[in-house]
């Protein structure tokens, strides 16, 4: 089974694009962590959802894949994750949504595993 980790990020209205772009650049570096399955981590934004109101103000998203709950816990506890989030998001944060789920083994092939 593969665990899918999804995070939606919302920055405060006073935060400029330079901060958001540096956040996006830094968050993508987390794909190099060994607890990210096959280095599969994507992050992007800003949202292009139409109408934009459906994004509920969330501007950026991250999706990463992990072998299991233990690997996700390792990812969350890593010093790199702490560095990136505490430096590039938490000081500018308005809101965050996190959603994790385990896939059925039959669906792993759809994910390329």
TrEMBL record:
Residues 3-101 form the Stress-response A/B barrel domain. Homodimer. SMART domains: Dabb. This is Stress-response A/B barrel domain-containing protein. InterPro entries: Dabb, Dimeric_a/b-barrel, HS1/DABB1-like. Pfam families: Dabb. It comes from Penicillium hordei.
